[in-house]
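Hi all, a correction to my earlier message: I attached the wrong file for Site-specific integrase. Here's the right sequence:
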Amino acid sequence: MKNHQKLTLLFWHRKSKADANGLAPVICRITIEGEEPEELGIGMKVHLKNWDIENKKAKGSGSNEKKTNLKISEVTVDLTRHFQTLQNQYENITPLMVKNVYKGLPAKLPKKTPKPEFEIVPSLLQVTDLHIANFKKMVEKKLRSPETLKQWNATRKKIEEFLVNQFQLKDMDLSSVEYSFAVKFYNYLTIDREKVIGEAAAKKQIKNLKEILTFAETSNWIGKNPIIKFKCGGDETDVPPLEYFEVEAIWTKKITIQRLAEVRDAFIFQCFTGYAFQDVYGLTPENIIKVGIAGERWLVKDRGKTGVSEAVPILPIIEEIIEKYKSHSCRLTMGQLVPVNSNQRYNGFLKELAIICGINRELNTHLARHTFADIMLNIMEFTLEEVSKMLGHKTIRTTQRYAKVKRSKISKTLARVKGIVFTEDGQLRKIAS
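and the right structure:
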């Protein structure tokens, strides 16, 4: 099969779509003789004064002009390559077929296939909304967690807030997003924002933004993710667990205010089960099962965040807390094992609890989970694999961020196994291999 059709590409400046700053989009017109032409937005904008009508490219030495001309070259190469591939497959090629393949679609779409939602390049927040909509579909299919969806919505709000405060814009063109956008966004979240967030939390927001821009790249709305080199990995903040004497001080403190006593019990419950806030909130008597010949009572529940089963033995202190609230309204009315407030109120009351218990650091729900990992690994001497299973982690690597082996554990292990290799006077034993 030999196709002799010819492809013509014309890049032009759509001045009628210029924005308030005088920037207008660059359009590529795809033409094949005898066929209806198609237009394709390349995702770049050029100022009205900086378009070379004769040479069909941006003029000037600015970074945007350079990027635009580079994008024109890339689009030319890609469209030509796709056209040449189609020549080996079809006797007749239309500009729409070339456009479809460039966008990652089948060359010939079924007649009932709906048109793409965006025929021109969407804005930053529009791409964000599309990405969140796709994630929501995965949540509906139970492939992703509803809690993670909430985090994506929070990221969307922060991006919108940043655009207003930093650029006085309600939205931004994708072509205007550069590497410096990520740096400024990070600084805004950690320094300039009225209510700043921690470095690890801020980098999580940048990581989400990076994923959104990667989605835009794979959709051919931008040539390359401009913030791909911004480092977000390996940035988890080390959260030192509470010392055991601090946990003991919280548990033994006599508290006369009922709401704080209930918060204390819920916090200690977390420290000895490792359950995250949303999982403790959802625990009911049905989550208690009997395991093994001895019929040990365990708490078993799928984690809300990952869906991984989290199973922990019920320790005596947890039995005491469960028994304490057997006639409480949380059990009788709502079916909960322990009374748990909303996350915001819970963390607020924990600040009060820290003060009255003499704990010189901020208490929060996540700290309890880290404390559980430390107690299980270093004091009760469970293995890292066992701790990982109890925390409901998918990988040991995640558990290693929660639990660090302390010198005291190494000392205990040494005292227990030293005699295997050394005699009492320090000499090497003879061990059969």
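Sorry for the mix-up. The beta strands are 7-13, 23-32, 38-47, 51-52, 57-58, 288-291, 296-302, 309-313.
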